[in-house]
Design goal:
The protein is an alpha/beta fold. The protein is built from 7 helices and 5 strands; from the N terminus they run ααββαβαβαβαα. It starts with a helix and ends in a 15-residue tail after the last helix.
Length: 182
């Protein structure tokens, strides 16, 4: 993980109103066992609560991030952590296929070199009626030096995201732009 990513995570950790706003945009869709992909410092997932949530699994590939998540969430009911790389297949022994009700992947997919493989793996983890909640940066034509600094591989258009989601087995229920001036 680059220094730019750490600096960005550190900055976002003090942006509680922003993190709450992001959470509020999808909170009504969280249910059952929730897996958060790329939990980082846990700034958004710390808001996950509600009667519909049975368990929250925080994940990251970084040992340092997992240690931080363990320190911050070990005493919270319903929360556990797992170190994994969603791009590979080393997590099926831990989580198992068809075991997750809801997956959240908030500002993570653009960091993953293999987005299609990652989405296929997410699809395999979800139960038949499971949901994926995904937040990604829009408009590849906006890709610039800031994206490079924070290790983004891409941005998405509605068409490119629809394509990769469809190819990985997902059916899109809803697309929504946020931070969008109309």
């Amino acid at each position: 993980m680059s220094q730019g990513v750490f600096q960005t995570l550190d900055t976002l950790s003090s942006s509680d109103k922003y993190n709450t706003w992001i959470y509020n945009s999808f909170k009504d869709h969280l249910k059952g066992t929730v897996l958060d992909i790329g939990s980082g410092l846990g700034d958004i997932v710390k808001h996950y609560s509600g009667n519909n949530i049975d368990k929250v699994i925080l994940s990251d590939y970084s040992t340092e991030m997992i240690e931080n998540l363990n320190n911050n969430f070990s005493k919270k009911d319903k929360f556990s952590t797992v170190q994994m790389d969603i791009q590979g297949d080393d997590f099926y022994d831990t989580l198992g296929a068809d075991s997750i009700d809801t997956i959240t992947c908030i500002n993570v997919l653009e960091h993953l070199k293999y987005d299609l493989a990652s989405l296929v793996n997410m699809h395999r983890l979800l139960k038949n009626d499971g949901k994926l909640i995904l937040l990604v940066p829009a408009f590849q034509w906006l890709y610039g030096s800031l994206d490079t600094l924070v290790d983004h591989h891409r941005r998405y258009s509605k068409k490119s995201l629809s394509s990769v989601l469809s190819r990985s087995g997902f059916k899109v229920d809803k697309f929504k732009f946020i931070n969008f001036l109309e």
